[in-house]
Write a structure and sequence with these properties.
This protein has 2 domains: about 30-130 and about 235-290, D-Maltodextrin-Binding Protein, domain 2; about 130-225, 3-Layer(aba) Sandwich (D-Maltodextrin-Binding Protein, domain 2), CATH 3.40.190. The protein contains 15 helices and 10 strands. It has helices spanning about 1-30, 40-55, 70-75, 85-95, 105-120, 140-145, 150-155, 165-170, 175-180, 195-200, 215-220, 245-250, 250-255, 265-275, 280-290; strands at about 30-35, 60-65, 80-85, 120, 130-135, 160-165, 185-190, 205-210, 220-225, 235-240. The strands form 3 sheets. The protein has a 5-stranded mixed beta sheet. The radius of gyration is 23 Å and the shape is globular. The termini are far apart.
């Protein structure tokens, strides 16, 4: 009987200690989230590995959470503590602020508002400007004489636009193009972000919304049209972090700022292409690049 009692006591102590331990781990849990496209997936792991290497902290990941609003709300709720956001997206789509074309002014504006109103800190940008573009097949553009957005306006009523659902809903997306350029297509197909480029390449749609750093643009012989009225704002990507996390672990900012200015458009497009075209894992692409730059061991 005594043996049973002792055994029971040991079990209860183990459960209690385990409960305390798991609770402690939960309070220390750092989660990086990402939106539902390749570039964000790569950025999630770039941030994870550099934090773990430089701070010794354990980082969990939630890539492909969803569109901008889903990931932004997850950060504000505390479901995640870090993700990579774009200055233009924050300025126009999340804060409903007027367009600012100057990259530094746009960054300074969103940084200040996020700090004051959301207690979220914008760290230094990675270096690339993943601005929205309108893209179409090179041969189709040449055939129709389309070089810039204004050229597309007259042809749009005979063409099909393929774009993400988010682009359809954003004020700095199709709605804004209609207002600024008077651009109206014959039909518009809302599509998964991973399908738009192939749809343009295969002629299933005529024009797509694209991202300047996407490696599929040159690979699929697509042409980026000139935004001649400068409708799209700058979209410089940067890590954004909950202020409460940085107060507890200020070394996270030091680690993430090691990525500042390290990726230009060409480099980011090359990393994206390794995932989208060469079918490499985003984790491996991120880790290999960090090692090649001497940023992690």
């Amino acid at each position: 009987m005594r043996k049973v009692s002792v055994l029971l006591l040991v079990i209860l102590l183990a459960v209690a200690i385990g409960g305390c331990s798991s609770g402690g781990e939960k309070s220390e849990r750092i989660v990086i989230g990402g939106k539902n496209f390749t570039e964000q997936d790569i950025l999630v792991y770039l941030m994870k590995y550099v934090i773990e290497d430089k701070t010794g902290l354990k980082v969990d990941t939630k890539p492909f959470l969803g569109g901008t609003s889903v990931v932004a709300q997850a950060l504000e709720r505390g479901d995640i503590q870090i993700y990579a956001e774009y200055t233009g997206t924050a300025l126009i789509n999340l804060l409903q602020q007027p367009l600012i074309n100057d990259p530094q002014q746009a960054y300074d504006k969103v940084k200040q508002i996020y700090k004051d109103k959301k207690q979220i800190v914008w760290l230094k940008p990675f270096g690339f400007n993943n601005t929205y573009t309108l893209t179409m097949r090179e041969d189709k553009a040449a055939e129709l004489g389309i070089e810039k957005f204004s050229d597309l306006v007259a042809k749009a009523p005979d063409l099909v636009l393929g774009c993400t659902q988010e682009f359809l809903e954003r004020s700095d997306g199709y709605k804004g193009l209609q207002k600024v350029y008077g651009m109206n297509f014959k039909s518009v197909n809302g599509m998964d972000p991973g399908l738009t480029y192939a749809a343009a390449r295969d002629g299933k749609v005529d024009v797509i919304d694209g991202f300047a750093t996407d490696g599929r643009i040159p690979a699929f012989k697509l042409k980026v049209l000139e935004d001649d009225k400068q409708f799209f704002p700058p979209y410089y990507a940067a890590p954004i972090v909950r202020e409460d996390l940085l107060k507890k672990h200020p070394q996270i900012a030091d680690a993430l700022n090691l990525l500042a200015g390290k990726l230009d458009n060409k480099q980011m497009a090359a990393l994206n292409a390794q995932v989208d075209l060469d079918k490499k894992d985003a984790k491996d692409v991120a880790k290999q690049w960090l090692k090649s730059q001497g940023l992690i061991k």
